[in-house]
Write a structure and sequence with these properties.
7-stranded mixed β-sheet, disordered C terminus
Amino acid sequence: MSGKEQRIQKCIVTFARSWTALSATRCLGRNGVQVITGDSSIATAASLSRYSIERFVYPEPDENPEGFIDKIVKVAQKHSNPETDLVLMPTHTCTRQVILNRKRFEGIAKLAVPDIEQFEIADNKSLLSRFCQENNIWTPLTLAVDAPEEFRNKARTFKYPAFLKEATSLASIGLHKVENADEAIRCFDELVNRQEIHVRNQYPIMQEFVQGDDYCATFLFEHGEPRASMTYHNILSFPRNCGIGALRETVEAREMESIGIELLRKLRWNGVAEIDFRWDGHSTPFLIEVNPRFWAGMAQSVESGWEYSYWLYKLAVDGTVKSYAPTAKKVKTWNPALTVLIAGQEFFEHKDSRKDLADACGKFKEEYRRDEFGFLGILFEKISTLLNPHERMEAVKRIIDLERGAINEFISDDDPLPVLGLMYPLIAFLQHGKMSTELLVGKTKLEKETNRRWR
């Protein structure tokens, strides 16, 4: 056995509550890498995995970036030694803090991430739109401005409907559909005033609405050269049609991947990235935005044969990695938490029932005064109309039918405990009576309150 084979392989994975981190942890562990999982919350899916040898809690990166980095450095120092190849693998928005502080990990843990200049172009929708325009990369018509007055003037001649987007946001957070110039200007001003934006590249952008389905092209790059790529199609998403993929399938998409490779080459990218496309099946795919880190549908990539987290680990350790082109497995994956939310959305939003509910309550009060028993028939009749169980359950059934044959990204025969990670979003839902994309992918007041109560 060679010296290299005898070395201990370890990796620190952040944002352990996420499905991305769980998929990365399992992929690394099944390839012999010992994983240390960290998060600002104690109840996480990845930390419950059999492949997580240790878990730790760090300060919230957005609120206390110095404390977050200090904690990661401390954990890295604990596991770093001459016999170990230790890699730090950020999986969420903390990636930016890690890149900014990469010098603190020199000699302790290895990284495979882009430079901060590359990262910020990809992470900022305003900067990205300008970069794509300068490099003739096909995107929807986009309005990125230097000042509010410029937006107000140009919004009058823009094509509607359109989407107003915050410059830096995740998934569908900060996405607002606008139907005309007055609505766009009003929404733009509200966002600017609420967030107190005064910096050129932080102003919201506006992008024309384009027809088609959502596709996610994924990549591994080594200093500007592609090493792997694959694409999956979001069949279902939460929120509907504009959020995180809940049911996915791997597809052949050479044109999308060629566009993504062109962009990432021009950025001299290093590490992983995912690019969202919108495609109608006929015309040139539209590049929508870049996710300069791991992506929510990591399970789809891994189950299809693309072991991105392990390949990234090898790139970090060796500084180079070979090209990978697996034969795609014909699989679908689905996320049970998101699917439950979509089914609920279909069931409760299948028709507008607020008027029916108000009528039922009104009839209840009126009939109860006259006949303490007769009102029951009217109430049950109104509730039956309100729920419309047959029609609404048919909508839910259609969703369930789509998932048949798909792999559940939580449940694994050799790693069963992470299914308890579902408790985190469910606890938040039960406490607050709602679920949002913010709760699933980022920090909000609701999430912070949930963490305080359940730690």
